[in-house]
Write a structure and sequence with these properties.
Length: 870
């Protein structure tokens, strides 16, 4: 039953009126904030502009003063250089020429002096260097001029030692005319004295003013479009408008004070400062070129007298028009338009939300009244009822929910459902369901989950979920009405677990009716027996009989289970494919509520592997016992070899010496006795050697070798016996034989022994033959070589085949019975197999299978393994 009750309808006109009532006052507030912001921005920007103008004007002044100071330094250096050279006195022409060359180099290196001259006290040029287009040139004596009538000579010669003459900054003139292109110059001069302190002339430098103006402009590059250099009469020496420059030289009256009279009056009255007029903002400072040339040691009084005496100065002025100052408003708009546009949108959004909220408030109140009536209904049903909002918080629960969970109402309302009532392992899953609540298409209307009770227990509840909607059809929550199915589901779960336990049991489970007919088998039964359930249902378990279990055992089985006891025992049954296997079984009766047996339950386990392991352990016990016997035999063989070999060797040597000293004709019988004795001694030595070889086997010396060479060598070792018995030997080497990783010497011994035995077994045959087949064998355990040695002799009895590889067992009158035992020992070291079968129509075949590569295990390691198994 959905909780849907729309609020009263909201008209667009009412929503628009509410929006405008909120939006207009908020816009007024935003405008006031913008005005205050602009005022703060304007004052900050104005302060920044004024500071920037002052800084750049000061930098320009420092650059001009530095340039003048550099020229003064060069001038004093040249004057001192002339005095040290003795040029003021009457000099030979060579010294004068030398100074000219030095001045020429100086002018070229500096690059900003138009002329460098030395003029004596009569006004005659003694040395003159002209610089033009990157080249400095010495003026010949014939072209030197007398400058006694020029103002700069007179004023410069009148100075005392160390004082500098500085001409006004103007344009250079040649022959009374202004030189074009315009060449601004400043003349610097200082007197020169001889060694007696007499004034003998002046050094004069014509400084190219373009360099000073360029440095001035570069120093104030940030304000180059509105900075000016003006002389004390208001004429421009440097201006962004080049047509206004040098008015006092070019004859036009373009002066600063013409358009800025008020500003000029204040600028001339003060040394530096900043003023604002109707024309704009003026930033200015003053340069006194003559004061700049004064030595550092000059007194304040001397500086003041020079300054007041000349009255010559320059003004550096930067001018920002009122229009440029008012450019802060467009800049403010450019920098902050996006911000205020975003704020306007925000104001619109907030106004709309507030208006929307007001209009929907009445609808929300009506919705709340409806939900209260709905909850009253939920309080009276015998089912759990819980309401969650979109955050997963509980907004309602009925008394029945509190009853089954044990919580109090104040422990539930307002609490987060995930944190309070959902088990930890289900939090992620339930959280995903709550997150899907806003989308009705994917929100589950039915769901089962556990709920935590106050006492810590979990109750399983199946919920029928109903979404709640607001007036705009948006989901605002969900109400779940649930049924407690904990006990019901527990019973179902127990049955399911029992069923799964039987189905997944590693043991065979069979249930029969009281007549012994199969009604159920689990999957393990099919896995073990090979029978499908459809093949055995309704059948008697006797279909598995192999015939090896007696009737008495079956009779005892039925008597035990019918009497209500368990029967435990073993069956040797047969699988569907005919293979025999062992089963350990427990069989008991299943009783109904009245105690009557209605079914029989058999739980069985395949114990074939256990039986096999028990047999293997028993075999390992036998092998261990045999190893202990061999160890004792080894000790005995060592003792016999030590105690008997030396006496046998002495007897053998004596018989050999005796046989050589006998007369062939007279002592033939004695010689025959000696030979017989020697043969018996050699036979005894062979017995001792076989005993030592078998009881104390050597370690393998492994190498890669080919089987054909091993067999060929073994044949050559047995050739004497083959020839004696006139045996026909047939050898077949199949193609593709790989190399072996084995001990060549021991394998030769193996095959030599086997070939000799095959040859001996054909002694009674009319047409003796031995056939050797060598082939490649691919098996589950890897690649191997199979060697078959077959003969057509008398063969080996079936009962004797099981003993022929045991030590000291032999079917011949003469022999130790260790040959085949040694063969078996060597092949075991190579992890090879040997077997004996009948050869049709007569004789026997010995088959040897040797792996191509194997891991050799020593006898001692084998014994240790057997000890661990047992």
């Amino acid at each position: 039953m959905p909780i849907t009750h729309p609020p009263p309808p909201v008209t667009r006109l009412g929503l628009l009126k509410g929006f405008m009532a909120i939006f207009i006052p908020m816009c007024l507030v935003l405008m006031i904030i913008g005005a205050m912001h602009y005022y703060t921005f304007y004052t900050t920007e104005r302060s920044s502009i004024e500071s920037r103008e002052l800084l750049n004007v000061d930098l320009a002044k420092r650059m001009i003063e530095k340039d003048i100071a550099d020229v003064v330094s060069d001038l004093l250096f040249l004057a001192e250089h002339i005095e040290r050279r003795g040029l003021p006195e009457a000099l030979p022409w060579s010294r004068e020429q030398q100074i000219s060359e030095e001045f020429k180099i100086f002018a070229k290196n500096k690059g900003f002096y138009d002329q460098i001259r030395y003029i004596d006290n009569t006004g005659m040029e003694v040395v003159r260097i002209n610089y033009s287009n990157g080249e400095s040139r010495v003026v010949p004596e014939s072209k030197l001029q007398n400058k006694s009538s020029r103002y700069y000579f007179k004023e410069g010669l009148a100075l005392d030692r160390g004082y500098i003459y500085l001409s006004p900054f103007d344009l250079n003139m040649e022959e009374g005319e202004i030189e074009f292109p315009l060449k601004p110059v400043i003349r610097f001069g200082t007197p020169v004295f001889d060694s007696h302190g007499e004034k003998r002339g002046i050094v004069l430098l014509n400084y190219l003013g373009d360099r000073l103006i360029q440095n001035f402009t570069r120093a104030a590059a940030n304000i180059a479009d509105h900075i000016e250099l003006v002389n004390n009469d208001g004429y421009w020496l440097s201006s962004p408008r080049q047509e206004d420059e040098w008015g006092f030289m070019l004859g036009h009256e373009a002066r600063f004070q013409k358009n800025n009279a008020d500003a000029w009056r204040i600028i001339t009255e003060n040394n530096k400062g900043q003023i604002q007029t109707e024309s704009g903002l003026f930033t200015y400072t003053t340069i006194h070129p003559f004061v700049t040339t004064i030595r550092d040691t000059a007194s304040v009084q001397e500086i003041t007298e020079i300054y007041e005496g000349t009255g010559y100065y320059w003004k550096i002025v930067s001018r920002l028009s009122s229009r440029e100052l008012s450019a802060t408003l467009p800049l403010f708009i450019q920098n902050h338009s996006a911000l205020y546009f975003a704020m306007l949108l925000l104001v619109m959004g907030v106004a709309w939300l507030l208006a929307y909220s007001q209009q929907h408030h009445r609808a929300a109140m009506a919705q709340r009244d409806y939900e209260q009536r709905f909850r009253y209904t939920l309080e009276n049903i015998e089912l759990a009822a819980v309401t969650l909002n979109l955050k997963g918080e509980v907004t309602f629960c009925n008394d029945y929910f509190l009853k089954i969970t044990g919580w109090n109402k104040h422990d539930v309302i307002g609490r987060n459902w995930l944190q309070q009532f959902v088990p930890d392992e289900l939090v992620s899953e339930i959280d995903g369901i709550i997150r899907r609540m806003p989308d009705p298409d994917i929100f589950p209307l039915r769901y089962e989950s556990e709920v935590k009770c106050k006492n810590g227990e979990h109750r399983l509840i199946t919920w029928n979920n109903t979404l709640s909607f607001d007036a705009d059809n948006h989901v605002i929550g969900a109400t779940g009405i649930g049924e407690d199915i904990t006990d019901k589901r527990k019973a179902e779960t127990d049955i399911l677990k029992l069923s799964q336990a039987v189905e997944q049991s590693p043991s065979v489970v069979i249930i029969t009716n009281d007549q012994g007919l199969i009604e159920y088998v689990n999957p393990k039964f099919t896995e073990v027996s090979g029978y499908e359930p459809a093949e055995v249902l309704g059948q008697n378990p006797r279909i598995l009989k192999s015939g090896e279990t007696s009737q008495e055992e079956y009779k005892d089985l039925w008597n035990t289970v019918i009497n209500g006891r368990e029967w435990r025992g073993e069956f040797h049954n047969r699988r569907k494919n005919g293979e025999l296997y062992w089963e350990g079984a427990i069989i008991s009766g299943i009783r109904n509520s009245e105690g009557k047996i209605t079914h029989f339950l058999a739980v069985k386990e395949d114990i074939s592997e256990r039986k096999r392991l028990e047999a293997e352990v028993e075999k390992q016990h036998r092998d261990l016992a045999r190893s202990e016997v061999l160890a004792a035999m080894g000790r005995m063989a060592s003792m016999i070899a030590h105690d008997l070999r030396n006496p046998l060797s002495s007897v053998k040597m004596t018989l050999q010496i005796l046989s050589k000293q006998l007369d062939v004709n007279r002592d033939s019988e004695v010689r025959e006795l000696c030979n017989t004795s020697l043969e018996q001694i050699r036979y005894m030595e062979e017995i001792l050697s076989d005993m030592l070889t078998y009881s104390l086997p050597d370690a393998l010396k492994l190498e890669w070798l080919t089987i054909d060479k091993i067999i060929d060598m073994a044949i050559s070792l047995s050739q004497r016996r083959i020839d004696e018995n006139r045996i026909k030997l047939v050898i077949n080497y199949h193609p593709g034989l790989p190399t072996l990783y084995a001990d060549a010497t021991k394998l030769r011994q193996v095959f030599s022994n086997l070939i000799s035995n095959a040859a001996q077994s054909t002694e009674s045959s009319n047409d003796p033959m031995v056939v050797i087949d060598v082939m490649l064998e691919l098996g589950l355990e890897g690649t191997a070589i199979r060697i078959e040695i077959c003969d057509n002799g008398c063969g080996i009895d079936k009962h004797e085949r099981e003993k022929i590889f045991e030590p000291f067992f032999t079917t011949r009158a003469k022999g130790t019975g260790l040959g085949l035992a040694i063969v078996k020992r060597i092949l075991d070291q190579h992890q090879a197999n040997i077997s004996v079968t009948d050869n049709t129509p007569c004789g026997s075949c010995v088959t040897v299978v040797i792996p191509v590569r194997h891991q050799v295990i020593s006898d001692e390691s084998a014994v240790n393994i057997q000890e661990k198994v047992t």
